[in-house]
TrEMBL record:
GO terms for cellular component: plasma membrane. The chain crosses the membrane at residues 233-256. Residues 80-117 form the PKD domain. It comes from Poecilia latipinna (sailfin molly). Pfam families: PKD. This is Transmembrane protein 130. PROSITE patterns: PKD. Keywords: Glycoprotein, Membrane, Signal, Transmembrane, Transmembrane helix. The lineage of its organism: Eukaryota, Metazoa, Chordata, Craniata, Vertebrata. Residues 1-23 form the signal peptide. The keyword Glycoprotein applies.
Length: 308
């Protein structure tokens, strides 16, 4: 997309050798041979001018040698080009352009050997360029619990897969509502992970907006986070606590109150069944009174009354 950018910050070339010819004449004294290397990378339909000496790994790259010959002294000369990519790969050709890709990140020295053809009529030279190959930021992942609580310090770990250094800017959006006025917190990251600390002020859906960039790429990701009110947990604990206590109390009550509830009947006891002895001294096997006696009050007890 930058191919047409007018102000090219051109890569400085190191002219380490030139002028191999000795004959006289305007074409045979090329002492001031100059040129430049220009890097492009193409991804999808976009072409980027890489003018900072940094390239993205794994991306189709094209390097063009532009001979500076304003007086057109060498317009009729031919050249041969030997490209040493610095990764063990050497490519030869007669065009001032080479296409390749670096698969691994790292620092490389790209060397171009330009040979004149015929040598008497054209300049020759060796040009070298330091190239820093970086992995583009292709993913940002949130390694954290999926639930967060209000008014509690939460730690959120972000994992980024690009080459550092990366500039990371992040912000939390309450209810995921875009807030153009709010800036983001910018951090220079020299590692692949970042731990954010945040205290959510309200329950509901929140968003974490993260953008990251290094010299060759930029990526923006939004995570939605569910923030719950932690007193709900509290309430759950209280209720379960109450249930246990209520069960105990009602059991005691059931035992203690049995004689009055049954009036003159006597409780002959047992865990599951109650043997009732009525006036006529008949023994009645009664399960239901046990069930009722122990269970009904449990539900009716207001929990908070007993609780811890
Ligand atoms: C091109 O030739 C002219 C003379 O015709 C000379 O003055 C000039 O330095 C040459 N330029 C280069 C780059 O060799
Ligand atoms: C590559 O070069 C840059 C500076 O150009 C330097 O900061 C970085 O540490 C180098 N990386 C490696 C792996 O040597
Ligand atoms: C969160 O942690 C910071 C220090 O890391 C502390 O100052 C703050 O009080 C904590 N907030 C809560 C709600 O615990
Ligand atoms: C979050 O807190 C940890 C220590 O608890 C700290 O190492 C980290 O730098 C903090 N993160 C940010 C973005 O301040």
């Amino acid at each position: 997309m930058d191919r047409a950018r007018p102000a090219w910050f051109l890569l400085r070339l190191l002219l380490t050798a030139a002028a191999l010819t000795e004959s006289a004449g305007p074409l045979t004294d090329p002492e001031r041979v100059a040129g430049r290397l220009v890097f492009y990378q193409t991804e999808g339909s976009a072409t980027y001018l890489r003018d900072s000496g940094a390239l993205a790994s794994g991306v189709a790259t094209e390097t063009v040698f532009e001979l500076l010959d304003p007086e057109r002294n060498f317009s009729s000369a031919g050249f041969s080009y030997t490209w040493d990519l610095g990764n063990g790969e050497v490519i030869r050709g007669t065009e001032p352009v080479v296409r390749y890709r670096y698969s691994e990140s790292g620092n490389y020295t790209l060397r171009l050997n330009v040979g004149g053809n015929p040598p008497q009529l054209a300049p020759a030279g060796v040009f070298a360029q330091e190239v820093q190959v970086l992995d583009a930021v292709r993913s940002i992942q949130l390694v954290a619990p999926s639930d967060y609580s209000v008014n509690r310090n939460s730690s959120l770990d972000l994992q980024l897969d690009g080459s550092p250094p990366m500039w990371v800017c992040w912000r939390f959006l309450r209810n995921c509502a875009p807030d153009p006025a709010a800036g983001c917190t910018l951090t220079l990251l020299r590692a692949a992970s970042l731990r954010l600390n945040h205290t959510f002020g309200s329950a509901g859906l929140h968003c974490l907006d993260v953008s990251a960039r290094n010299a060759v790429s930029a990526l923006r990701v939004t995570f939605s986070l569910k923030v719950t009110r932690n007193d709900r947990l509290h309430l759950l604990f209280i209720l379960s606590c109450a249930a246990v206590l209520a069960a105990t109390f009602s059991f005691i009550l059931a035992i203690a109150c049995r004689p009055w509830q049954l009036n003159s009947s006597q409780v002959a006891a047992s865990s599951n069944a109650t043997f009732l002895k009525d006036q006529d001294s008949k023994i009645i096997l009664n399960f239901s009174s046990v069930e009722k006696g122990e269970r009904v009050p449990l539900i009716l007890q207001p929990g908070s009354q007993y609780c811890c």
